[in-house]
What does this fold into?
Amino acid sequence: MAKNITAESNGERQKTRLSSTTILFMFLVVMVASFAVLSKDFYSVYNLSSMLTNISFSGIVAGTLTLVMIMGGLDISIGGNIALTSCLVAYLYNLENPPHIALIILIGLLLGTAIGAFNGFIITRLDLNPIITTLGTMAMTRGMGYVLTQSRSILILENVVGFIGRGSIAKIPFPLILFGVIYTILAVVMARSKFGRKIYCIGSNQEAARLSGINVRRVKFITYLVSGIAASLSGLILTGQTAVGMPQHANGSELDVITAVLMGGTSLAGGKGSVLGTLAGVLILGVLYNGFTMIGFRYVHIRVFQGAILILVVSLYEVRDRKRF
Amino acid sequence: MDNRLLEMVDITKRFPGVLALERVNFDLKKGEVHGLLGENGAGKSTLIKILAGDYSKDEGEIIINGENVEFYSPSDSQSRGISVIYQELNTLDTLSVAENIFVGNLPKKKGLRTVDWKTLNRNAKTVLGRMLVDINPRRIVGDLTVHEKQIVEIAKAIYKDAKILVMDEPTAALGEKDTVSLFNIIRSLKLQDVGVIYISHRLKEVFEITDRVTVLRDGRLIGTEVTAETSRGRLITMMVGRELKDMYPKRDVPFGKTLIEVHNLTIRGIIEDINFDVREGEIVGLFGLLGSGRQNIVRALYGIDEKDNGTIKIKGSPVFIDTPAQALLHNIGFMPIDRKLEGLALTMSVFSNITMAHIDELGSGYFIDKNLEMEQSQKWVNDVNIKTPSLETDVNSLSGGNQQKIVLAKLLETGSNIFIMNEPTRGIDVGAKVDIYQMMENLCEKGAGIIMISSELPEVLAMSDRIITISQGKITGEFTRKEATQEKLLQAATV
It folds into this structure.
């Protein structure tokens, strides 16, 4: 009998789980409303649009990291990947005979692809723990950035790269368009596609997925590959926004990105989570930083809030998931 | 009345929307083994959890040694001498046997207050000796067999002076020999006036070890019987609420062409030169003891483990199977031995589990055809008789029997016609078992072939058309349904 009951109450609990993303978005609306009241500068088209543009670079990697984490993996090499991409692009542009800008951008994206492929290869073929693997790639990529630039910042005042970071189409900032397009694709992939379902299955029970004929290695490899590509795309955006390639770019950003994903309801153990949840997490963090800055708090204070909110939100998930009566 | 250890009177427990237990009475005497029977969901676990202090009761009384008690937590229950040994054992696998038994109360040396290992190991030996077992207290628990771990847990309970011991499906993971050993331990506990509440699905064991049996159904007490004065049929009727004429609904299905042939299957040092075939409409039972290699045979056949040699022919032509995906491509379906470890994605819904081995066939292109998926899942939920609140329900909230049926549904959804079924009814209740047997027979009628591995001899004898015995990685005998007897099989399996 007890088991039947859990079944029924779990039916109800599932409804609340579906709406947990809704709750996050409601929380977001409350935050936006409060900041709008507290600061008249906050609720302006200019501020909101620049805020969204600022979060799109970390938002994109948060989106693809969601896939990795639902699969039960982790990729902490994204920050290093972003930095190395930006260094390489700026370095190539400043060569005496620079290649065509289109080629430079392609090489930048290929670099991310290669880093993702490397992670994927090590994790699927050598069965190494993803945290250890990407911890290694994180140090390697960040270090290579310093070596390549000899620890300097390299200016890159180039129109196409600038457009990726600062341009706009029909008054909509270009990074924001990328952000929107990528989230739409990721959300549809995870909710509707066969590939997305396989990611959930692997995250929930890898052995069961394998015995069900799912090509676990392939799905994992592709997912790490996508994470690598997204990171280099973010690297291009950041390079465009700052007009500089430097090895310190996105330092520590992997932890903020993980924070956003966890706040969005994705479980570290895998098998659970959603792209929409991560979107809410990314937006909440963005509004948090922008809003508190607007009403006079400093970065160091807001970091304290960020940590507190992460623990608060995730403990709410935990409490809700407790099986005890 | 004087020798009553425990009385539970009119216990009622409500969960939101459901009455889990309704005025249930239960009692336990000193030195008695009292069986608790019921299908999954009958209320056994709820009753035990109330006794263990995990759940609080809504109404009723718990009386221990004539004293009315209230439990607010598991430690309240333990301090009254109640110990529960769950199916999933709670041993600390990186510590030694002695440390496990005395955890929380290790003897310390005077002065530095460091652990007094000598005394610890000596005490552990004494406790184990009381149960007439001989396990080196220095061994690391992680290296022990399931049965030995179980002994460690029982020893821990004995040391804590448990007067009431609850055992939840203690033999589920045990072989024949260990079961005998466990029963000896239980008998030695009886002599020390310990009362044992014994929960099991295996009626044979209930008759062997218990003094009385209590049957629950749908949260109500159906009755308490003296074991020596009741019968198997009566207990089954009490459990399922209807007369179950046929526990094993075996039908007479004519055999067709040969579906699959296995030739010279070998994994060096594990299995050697295995040859057998399965025909349409046939159930072939592979019978062997734990470690005989029967698992390795089917795992190699399904492409999970590598094989060193061997040819597999399907309908006469040789096929290449190196991964589960390839096996599925050749219409071979596989039911793993452990549904939680290898069969189900527990955090996912009923429908995603049912379609898990068939994702690529759910619509053309990159996307899942949601309507098709729901239609298919609903069909299997009906056909296999899965009791679930909805298709969206998480699988981990369903009972073991229903989870096992989902594993079966997943197998059927693949559209295979050769099925490898590993312990198809392990740890599930009688009603669910019969449902699964019915489904197996339906498959045979449609021309499928089934390779079944089971540790339950009655099941093997009743459901197989042909039985192949395995011992030490080799085939040691082959029996038709008519020839096979329990003795013959056991003899061939222990060559």
